[in-house]
Amino acid sequence: MILILEKRKKTKKWVAVLCAVVVLLAVCAYFALDNRLSVTKYTVSSDKIPISFDGYKIVQLTDLHCARFGENQQELVEQIAVLSPDLIVFTGDMIDQYLLDFDPIEELCSALSEKYLVLAIWGNHEKALSYSDFEKMKKLYRQYNIEILYGDTAYIERGGSCIAISGADDPACWNDDAVVFVNENGIGVYPAEGLYNILLYHRANIFPALTDLGFDLILAGHMHGGQIHIPLAGGLISPTMQWFPKYTAGRYDENGTKMIVGRGLGNAIKVPRVFNPPEIVSITLKST
User: Fold this and answer.
1) Which of 2, 89, 228, 281 could potentially form a cystine with 274 if both were Cys, beta carbons 3.0 to 4.6 Å apart?
2) Is the pTM for the entire model greater than 0.85?
3) How far apart are CA 141 and CA 73, in angstroms?
4) Is 252 within 8 Å of 263 (Cβ atoms)?
5) What is the arrangement of strands in the sheet containing 250-254, beginning at the earlier edge strand?
6) Cα(142)–Cα(283) distance, rounded to whole angstroms?
7) What is the C-alpha R_g of the chain?
8) What confidence tens digit (pLDDT) does each residue in 134-164 have?
9) CA-to-CA distance for 41 and 58, rounded, in angstroms?
10) Pairing status of strand 229-230 against strand 197-203
């Protein structure tokens, strides 16, 4: 009888341990695969930022890949409204060349263009579109007064001063070849003399080729946060299929040039985002 009771106690103990493990794994999975929108806020300070731009807020959206956040992108639009941006920038891959669903980006453009100034650049997915689909994408942006920057500079005025925001086209090459290409050929746009210069550039992994060009701040995407974020180790793999890539998400500072990399909103591959929720980036400029 005593042996039976002891066996029952041991069985109950192991059942309790197993239940605890299952619950722990379920909690970890819940947070790991959490697909709710997140907001990451940055403050960028510089004595080149005019006083009239102190507190100027830029919201960056990148790598939508045809994703939807509520009916007519309502969840995304509402989150942006809470941030009260002065400017919104799209840093590429808002469409997905394989899905070719233009409705999610049109819904977003329709909602945002009514209230905000929106600037956009192309990513590798837009540049991989067929001629007709690429023309459709350009027409969509122009329909909603979204200014496309590719080798162009927009001068934003406020309080009698201005800052320069430039956009560069996506290079027609891949992986390390892109860094070599940019080193040899440049990006087709240059910082404006005497102004605070922001560059919109899709591929964050090309940062080493951009730091000597004279831009103060670069806003980039493309790296999808490393797809799977490993705590204390960073992103696991890049869209360029490099393991533990360097520039996956967050803020970087090299040679006097700062870069902020958005983790992106959508997903271009079948591997789920792990500890890597969709992200809206908010940057506040501070004059020093």
Assistant:
1) 228
2) yes
3) 16
4) no
5) 152-158, 161-167, 197-203, 217-221, 257-261, 250-254
6) 25
7) 22
8) 999 999 999 999 999 989 999 999 999 999 9
9) 10
10) unpaired
